[in-house]
Amino acid sequence: MPRPVRSIDGADAIDLPSLLAANEPVVLRGFAAHWPLVAAGREGAQRAIAYLKQFDGGRPIVGYTGEPAIGGRFFYRDDWTGLNFDAARVGLSAYLDRIAAHLDDPDAPAFYIGSTDLDTYLPGLRRDNDLSLPPPTPGRAAPLASIWIGNRTIAATHYDLSNNLAVCLVGQRRFTLFPPDQVANLYPGPLEPTPGGQVVSMVDLRAPDLDRYPRFADALGQAQVADLTQGDVLFYPALWWHNVEALDRFNVMINYWWNDAPAFADSPMTTLLHAMLSLRERPAAERAAWAAMFDHYIWRGGGDARAHLPPEVQGDLAPLDPAAARRLRAKLLQRLNR
Question: What pLDDT digit, counting tens, does each position of 181-210 carry?
């Protein structure tokens, strides 16, 4: 069975290097408990909604709505013909009013505003509701701050390409997390379409079908659970799979995404897609040989692949900077367009 995520009480700062070095989820209890949005939420859902509406920047946001029958879980239809919810561009305040109108409805639709950029759509909210994070290392992108709003909803188990600091502000949330090496035991679904932009596990945590997905029992043995209340902050590293349950009739979370990689680095998903084209259908012996190549040049299993070469002849093996990355990208595009 899943074990609890490690918790830290009374932390007065977020030590990002230590969190990244540990490469494990951790909860900072009450770290954001002093935020005004937390205080508004403690007064009730209507007060929190009124507080958020003050920062409506007037730009339409995307609101996701599912029928009561989906039980709040945004996923695929039973017949696989599409997704089990609708998405529409709506005004933030109008959509909050829709949520408010169903707060006491035991059979309410599932309402969800996901990954909405704070500075663009709720300007000013971060003035009094923001984590104090160290500036990014030169050449690295600053964290992206997004807000998540809704009633009782479930984000199916998925992974993100970035590290994450998730701040629970209104309501309670439960994160069930799985390390990246459990990918095969989670039975990932189609690459596209996906309910939220990332591949999701086909297993429903509410009632796992172990006859159909037997290896999921092994994944559960490696899982960790974080039960968050207002003001708690959860850190989890990039590529950790997570199922997220918003447990109250009104819930708000803000998260911060960032990668500890140079800003010029391309997404590894691009590499994976190209590997499907170039490697997946080759004979097993060739795939094994290329695995050794990747180990040498990328994973550095035998040490630095360029260490024995003088700098002037290292070429593409030399350390990357923005200019070298542009040249390498141009070379790749030329090869792909042949």
Answer: 999 999 999 999 999 989 999 999 999 999
DSSP states of 204-229 as a string? -TTS--TTTSTTHHHHHHH-EEEEE-
Q: CA-CA distance, 29 to 11, in Å (whole number)?
A: 8
Return d(Cα 57, Cα 65) in angstroms, integer.
Answer: 22
Q: Which residues contact 97 (CB under 8 A, 6 or more apart)?
A: none
Q: Which residues pair with 243 in a beta bridge?
A: 176
* Residues 66 and 110 sit within 8 Å (Cβ to Cβ): yes
Q: If pLDDT is split at 50, 70 and 90, which confidence band does 133 have?
A: confident
SS3 of 167, please? strand
- HSE (side-chain half, CA atoms, 13 Å) at 269: 11
Token digits of residue 11: 């932390």
Q: How far apart are CA 175 and CA 226, in angstroms?
A: 5
User: ∠156-162-165 over CA atoms, to 5°?
Assistant: 80
Assess contact for 202 and 213: CB atoms under 8 A.
yes
What pLDDT does 210 receive?
97
- Model-level pTM? 0.94
DSSP reduced 3-state for 145: strand
Instruction: Determine if the peptide bond prior to 193 is cis (ω within 30°).
Output: yes
37 φ, ψ to 5°?
-65, -35
